[in-house]
Specification:
The structure is a single chain. It contains 6 helices and no strands. Helix 1 packs across helix 6. The radius of gyration is 13 Å and the shape is globular. The protein has about 110 residues and is mainly alpha-helical.
Length: about 110
């Protein structure tokens, strides 16, 4: 178990370090790329990436984005689509949770 946590922590640190780049890594899927753009402060680009992706991970990021903008009703809809509970912690904490979960599930 400790080995996979180390691997996940390494992935998370690389993902965060990539925020210094001009664009996300091309191999990232829409949900992780959306989170990347959200962390860079480009809500519109993040939203464009996830809004038409039918997957649950994209719906989760979509919910997060609407929560960030303060549209809690719309966020609630996307949390339901994602099969996730509505987040009530700090948005930074939710970003970390989504990133860790998606990085753990990805081949990145």
């Amino acid at each position: 178990m400790a080995e996979s946590m180390t691997s996940l922590d390494f992935k998370a640190s690389l993902f965060k370090a990539s925020l210094a780049d001009a664009a996300p890594a091309p191999r990232l899927g829409a949900p992780l790329a959306g989170l990347w753009w959200a962390a860079k402060g480009d809500w519109d680009q993040a939203h464009r990436l996830v809004q038409d992706d039918p997957g649950a991970d994209a719906a989760w990021v979509h919910a997060y984005l609407h929560r960030v903008e303060g549209d809690l009703g719309n966020a609630g809809y996307w949390y339901r689509r994602a099969g996730r509970p509505v987040a009530d912690d700090a948005v930074d904490a939710e970003w970390q949770r989504i990133a860790s979960t998606l990085l753990g599930d990805s081949g990145v």
